[in-house]
């Protein structure tokens, strides 16, 4: 396809045989075959043992054909060959595998083996030419099959060196070559990126806006892989996918039930559509981790009450919600039983929308069964059930370019047909989408299809489980000596598959932890999760989202005598080039994505040990966090790691930040205006920036979203409440903390910090 040596698509063939003595007819035939293939520019890899062959298959997904020689009459050899075949077939159902055999003995090959190979090669009887011809035909067929529609068309088109008279104006990159900076850019990204950056005028590839040609085929293919009736490729992230769905489903003065734990894009969509949001408030635990919305908030009566309690809903709407959006899984990896949510919320709405931005892999591993929007198959879907939407950021936890996102739809009650839905789609799409992003969605689907998705997700789950077990074990060892170590937020015990006995997490079998969803359920009354008497089976922790906990929080949420703020650890890790996903007061989130490499967590674990050492020895900050000390010389120059951590912990205790966070997020503010009304005031500049002291009773013009947890404390149009209320209380605690610890300040969207370190927020003028 592309003609250089690093071409990932150069034909690569693996030959596996054991004990073929050098000067036999078989050896000569194999050698001749190899030369013949190599003359065709095929790369031939030879494994002279089955174990080596197995290792090659596991480590090199670019192998496009396997030639396997077995001694038909040798039981041991057949067993080893069978093992290799099992490895191949557990990863790839379509890879062509030929058995090299003599025609005479073929009848003696065990059925188990025959079942897993495609065909025979009569290595002694047929001519080399004929054999290599058959191999190449199988490879061609496989390659044809293995590439998804859009990428295949794009790669083929980029190869045709046409003269383009259309946009993009860089015309295959040539414009960049006319300047030094441009040339540097061109060289950095390589020609193929520019050749595949095409405009909608290239008819051969179809169009994203009318879903035609290879792009349309690719969306159909994606729908098949992800279990949707229809799927849409979106090139501006799930931010846009959420907006498309909400704009298509709910309009001015209609009610949308919104998870209060929603992404900012939901706020934007509600603002644009003029809908009235009625919030579903999630639970939260002692660490400030946001849990699921509990079932008692989703019943018909509870929804009715939430609507009745919302002044704006009463003023503006007919009181009937038309759409509900839920974040699944949550950022911290809590996944709903989707069936149960459907059963509950289905009593109140016809359309259910799951924001699965971080959860695109769920369909591909049985560990997540029944816990994602597109569970089951379209053919079995009861069309009297709600219509289901899912948004997934392909780029987040699958493999795709940034901004690649997908919308999946399963039609049930009150569906939105394609014609109407596409109006909303086009309203948010660019007329010049970046084709490599589109192709990356299609490739992502191809990677997850069939055995691939299971193998990739298994790898991530296996690694996460090993890390979790290791930390649990080390924690137990240190604690038994009266010492401290980090821990992981996870069950303390699991129930053994066979005996039903309670086993400490660190001693549980990896086999069970990686395959039994029961290990990860939030069971009613279990202390570790902190969500109390939650309904059994309702919510599961996703093992690949690992929250490491630092010491300091008691089970009841009180801060203990002593502890270590997670922010100190995050900053320390950052200095070692380890960048974490998210930090709360006492937890740090690490993602084990499908890109994880074996043992990558060893480095992280080492760094945790080093922190412990440096903490216990109070190592000077100037040595371990030089960047921080350089930036804030006066503040930190004389401190050690323990000094900093202790002082920060004490401050958090005094300010009560963790409790204040819980309090701030457990009330729903009074909505004075709908989001669109508040936004209109912003556009008309009828706003002023106020300090926290000036804000009691005022209506905010923009959302106020502290990160973490990244959920809105205040939505546009909501009232900040009294001076001593939980909302301003929390913001004041954050402000006081930020003043005291430069370099560790919080990031709160909607808050500007003025020159005197005051928080200011845009409010609507009285
Ligand atoms: C990241 C995220 C989005 C937006 O996705 P992008 O692809 O970054 O636009 C939407 N919802 C949730 C829950 C997210 O975390």
Give the helices and strands, then pairings.
Blueprint: E1 12-16, H1 25-39, E2 43-47, H2 50-59, E3 65-69, H3 75-91, E4 97-101, H4 111-114, E5 119-122, H5 128-146, H6 149-159, H7 180-189, H8 191-195, H9 213-226, E6 230-234, H10 237-249, E7 255-259, H11 264-273, E8 276-280, H12 300-309, H13 311-316, E9 321-327, E10 334-336, H14 338-345, E11 351-355, E12 387-393, H15 394-397, E13 405-410, H16 418-428, H17 435-448, H18 451-480, E14 487-488, E15 493-495, E16 502-504, H19 510-515, E17 539-541, E18 545-549, H20 566-575, E19 582-583, E20 587-591, H21 601-616, H22 621-624, H23 626-631, H24 633-636, H25 641-655, H26 657-666, H27 675-683, E21 687-691, E22 705-707, H28 726-740, E23 747-749, E24 751-753, E25 759-764
Parallel strand pairs: 1-2, 1-3, 3-4, 4-5, 7-8, 7-9, 9-11, 11-12
Antiparallel strand pairs: 6-13, 10-17, 12-13, 14-18, 15-16, 18-20, 19-20, 21-25, 22-23, 24-25
Helix pairs in contact: 1-5, 2-3, 6-17, 9-17, 10-11, 10-16, 11-27, 26-28
The protein binds pyridoxal-5'-phosphate.
Describe the structure.
- The protein is an alpha/beta fold.
- Helices cover 40% and strands 14% of the residues.
- The protein has 28 helices and 25 strands.
- The strands form seven sheets. Strands 6-13-12-11-9-7-8 form a seven-stranded mixed sheet, sandwiched between helices. The protein has a five-stranded parallel sheet with strand order 2-1-3-4-5.
- It is globular.
- The relative contact order is 0.07.
- Residues 1-6 have low confidence and may be disordered.
- Bound molecules: pyridoxal-5'-phosphate.
